[in-house]
Amino acid sequence: MKIDLTDTTSARINTGLIDARRAIGTPAVGMVLTLVIVTDEGSAYDALKAAHEASREHPSRILAVIKRPGRSPRERAGARLDAEVVVGDEAGTGETVVLRMHGELANHAESVVLPLLLPDAPVVCWWPDQAPEKAGTDPLGRLAQRRITDASSAEDPVGSLVVRAEGYTPGDTDLAWTRLTPWRSMLAAALDQKHSAITSAAVEGEAYNASTELLALWLADRLGVEVERKVSDGPGITAVRLFTGDGDICLDRSDGRLAELSVPGQPDRHVALKRRETAELIAEELRRLDPDDIYRATVKFGVKHLVSTARSGKGTDGGGPTAAARATPPAAKKAASGGKAATSK
Amino acid sequence: MSTETPDRSGNPLRDPLDRRLPRIAGPSGLIIFGVTGDLSRKKLMPAVYDLANRGLLPPGFALVGFARRQWENEDFAQEVHDAVKEHARTPFREEVWQQLAEGCRFVQGDFDDDTAFETLKSTIEELDKARGTGGNFAFYLSVPPKFFPNVVQQLKKHGLSQGTGESWRRAVIEKPFGHDLASAQDLNRIVHDVFPPNEVFRIDHYLGKETVQNILALRFANTMYEPIWNRSYVDHVQITMAEDIGIGGRAGYYDGIGAARDVIQNHLLQLLALTAMEEPGSFHPKALTAEKLKVLGAVQLPDDLGKHTVRGQYAHAWQGGEEVLGYLEEEGIDPKSKTDTYAAIKLEINNRRWAGVPFYLRTGKRLGRRVTEIAVIFKRAPYLPFESGATEELGQNALVIRIQPDEGVTVRFGSKVPGTSTEVRDVTMDFAYGESFTESSPEAYERLILDVLLGDANLFPRHQEVELSWTILDPIEAYWDKHGKPAQYASGTWGPAEADEMLARDGRSWRRP
């Protein structure tokens, strides 16, 4: 069931949602959250597809905010709201409203979104590509408990981590971090077993890859050892090595699918470690809506470290945090030993 | 609800705040006896694959099949492959399969064959070397209970039942856990002789269902239900597990056992315990078991078993568009069999919360449709300030926990019918748990197998619970043995007329589920 509304208002969209529900005979549904996707025409299709898939696990009302401020002064002067209400099969298990905001209205998206939020249910805001610098104070971000950005989609993925760290508000999270969960859980499981003390570590992955960077930061933060960042051809992260007195604990994934885990004194084993689709990442994000303290600790640990290398001149050009960060991946930087910083207890 | 998981506080990569990291089982393997059976093919192997696909199995996980069939490792792997492709819930992915297939082994032999168990032993040793399973193995006895003594004795004899050092060995057994108290005690003795009680996991797959675990969340995470969850507000409780199928090919197993032993003793009494128990101090298995034992211990049978229990057998009839045979006409069933395919009993719980509130339990085969639910029926409002006639169609408020299919919770209450006159009629409010969450919610066996590997015994009935359940059922079975015979009911209906009379005697009626 699809209803197109041109030059409309939030109130009429609400009526449209109820009409659409009635028409297909399910007036009430157990939607658990509102997912606001802030995007442009180019990325809207993929983002909506992923959100619909994720809605099978988390039935939600999906509001896609597409800003079209217009190119000419005349277009910018006018303001118009067009909406597309989709309920039923093609909208996953919940309902979807695509909101196209023309002209000046593009600067007041929150005024359209607020009346359309589900009563009493959590709100999640997702920027599939360009996210505001400080998601927590963005007018749309402020409506949400949980704000999902994606550093990997930025022009400068590693630099954008610094931006994320500086603008961090509890409830922020980043898909570059979500992508790490299988790696992190496998590494944690490996360290559940007896092993001798870890002296240092290395993380290998594509250049300009925010996830690889975050993984190195996480290890440096948690283990309190020096973590070397090495550049490989990818795809994504290719290997993690933890050096111990008895030999290396190594998780090596060269093809983006199947990894090999080797632990001293144990046979090598294969582990499925597939790179995941956006829908799976979003589904994981929606599972927990409370602030992710480990992400905070990791990304903040990173910014501290990046700044300190820049200032002490170890970085290549030392031009401030963003520049330092941008310069790091090709230069195979060393993530700091960091000491016992930020154990976040 | 995991409290018995090993202490991993020493691991710097783990943090209680890091809730994204799932519980992954430590190095281990699963050995399935009777691996060629239906359960293994349709449930166990797919569940193992799904766990691997969700990244919850340790790297190097081993799956060993033990059966009489002449198979090589490759044949077994192929069999697992086919079973997984057909029955797994998560999509088939080559790399996950590759990871799993490397750890597949098959041991051919009979249960009294010493060489086969020696082979099993060397297979385990080989796996420890090649896969790093660390000597941790769970033995899943997917075989008829008459083979249990044989298998566990063989495991003991060949030194397989005890791990060395810190490694563990666990036994997993499926129902039936005996057919009465004495046989259940025998069985427990046999198994506990070889495995310590806390390493024996009894599978009641109902307890692995999300909806059953949700009973605890519904009751103990909310404030809304607990104040009315007692004799002041509850009129009675109906717990139903209905199947629409007959006995199928299970004549040999089913005849002489019957519905009450097959279902009431385990599933329904467990559901009763979860519905009626007091709040446990924590979700530690010990605390949970203590509360379940307390409430099962307070269960009181009716004085007149003839009036308050009913058993039946399905009869030849048309069911849902098909002509089906009656129980006595099924192949392999003695035409004079007195085995019950339907059983309904009334129980009371003697404690402050529930005194005087009857719990009606019923189960049967070839009933109207497949459904399992717990219905808590509330008392009528003490006074209705409406005109006479206005509330004629108003029934009793009810809260129904739908266990399967269509998992969820329904609340039934009165509402005004739109119009100028005042008329109140029953309406329902639905929470559909299954509809929206099934896609990702794990299958019961997945959860239970993972819990076995993690050593988390929360969702497994302890032997005391099993024995207590038999003490409840034994007098009923003894009474049935001596008095009368099962009433006949047409297949596809909701049981014999006697069952309706049983409730009518108390001024109540069965819900149509």
Automatic annotation (TrEMBL), chain A:
Transmembrane intervals: none
Glucose-6-phosphate dehydrogenase assembly protein OpcA N-terminal domain sequence ranges: 51-165
Record field: compositional bias (Low complexity): 322-345
Chain segments carrying region Disordered: 310-345
Domain Glucose-6-phosphate dehydrogenase assembly protein OpcA C-terminal: 170-298
Coiled-coil regions listed in the entry: none
Pfam families reported for this sequence: OpcA_G6PD_assem (PF10128), OpcA_G6PD_C (PF20171)
Highest taxon, organism lineage: Bacteria
InterPro entries referenced in this protein's UniProt entry, alphabetically: G6PDH_assembly_OpcA, OpcA_G6PD_C, OpcA_G6PD_N
Record NCBIfam families: OpcA (TIGR00534)
PANTHER family: OXPP CYCLE PROTEIN OPCA-RELATED (PTHR38658:SF1)
Protein name: OpcA, an allosteric effector of glucose-6-phosphate dehydrogenase, actinobacterial
UniProtKB/TrEMBL annotation, chain B:
One Gene Ontology cellular component annotation held by this UniProt entry: cytosol
Active site: 267 (proton acceptor)
GO biological process, one term: pentose-phosphate shunt, oxidative branch
Annotated ranges, domain Glucose-6-phosphate dehydrogenase NAD-binding: 31-214
PROSITE patterns: G6P_DEHYDROGENASE (PS00069)
Alphabetic keyword roster: Carbohydrate metabolism, Glucose metabolism, NADP, Oxidoreductase
Top-level taxon in the UniProt lineage: Bacteria
EC number in record: 1.1.1.49
Catalytic reaction annotation: D-glucose 6-phosphate + NADP(+) = 6-phospho-D-glucono-1,5-lactone + NADPH + H(+)
Glucose-6-phosphate dehydrogenase C-terminal domain mapped to chain residues: 216-511
Keyword Transcription: no
Binding-site residues for substrate, renumbered to this chain: 205, 209, 243, 262, 365
One Gene Ontology MF term: glucose-6-phosphate dehydrogenase activity
Disordered, as annotated region: 1-21
Gene3D superfamilies in the cross-refs: Dihydrodipicolinate Reductase, domain 2, NAD(P)-binding Rossmann-like Domain
Pathway membership, UniProt: Carbohydrate degradation; pentose phosphate pathway; D-ribulose 5-phosphate from D-glucose 6-phosphate (oxidative stage): step 1/3
Positions with a binding annotation for NADP(+): 68, 110-111, 175
Family: Belongs to the glucose-6-phosphate dehydrogenase family.
HAMAP family associated with the record: G6PD (MF_00966)
Role summary: Catalyzes the oxidation of glucose 6-phosphate to 6-phosphogluconolactone.
Stated name of the protein: Glucose-6-phosphate 1-dehydrogenase
Origin species: Actinacidiphila bryophytorum
